[in-house]
Amino acid sequence: MTEQHTTALVIGSTTIGGTVHADYNDIAESCFPCVMDGREPGPCTQRPTTAADLTTGALVQTLPAPRWANVASRSAVVITAMGSGTSTIALVWFWALGPAEYQRTVWTVQADEVVPLQTTLKTLPQQTYRAMVAAHGKAEGPNVGMVAPLTAALAAAHH
Q1: Is residue 66 within 8 Å of 54, Cβ to Cβ?
Q2: Strands 75-82 and 7-16
Q3: Of 32, 34, 38, 76, which has the maximum CB count within 10 A?
Q4: Strand partners, 115
Q5: CA of 25: how far to CAs of 57, 112, 144, in Å?
């Protein structure tokens, strides 16, 4: 029997005034078989990430690495990518951290540093989608042009 790797969207939580609330900006995916195999909690890592996975608007999750210690969010959206196969480099925006700003909320990643999520812009929880669109609209100065490639992808996913 072939093992099925099925991911589930996980919504984070935050405490406000002593009460726990859902945090729709803190999303991730988890694959139960991968967790049971002793892998890090997170999306399936059954195959390497390639250029085909890193298209504009694709959602990704960073894999554990020391350089991500300064990024409080692990889920991001691809702005654009360059390269081919597993040697692709992508520009990603960690929207939950705020409006686009290079090296604060926008980073370059290599294909082997991220895993694509099965969740898409169209299937994001409505609260998450709306927060992303709002943060996208708050980009200023040269950052507006940097996230411009996302405009069409966000509009196409409207819900």
Answers
A1: no
A2: unpaired
A3: 76
A4: 61
A5: 16, 24, 21
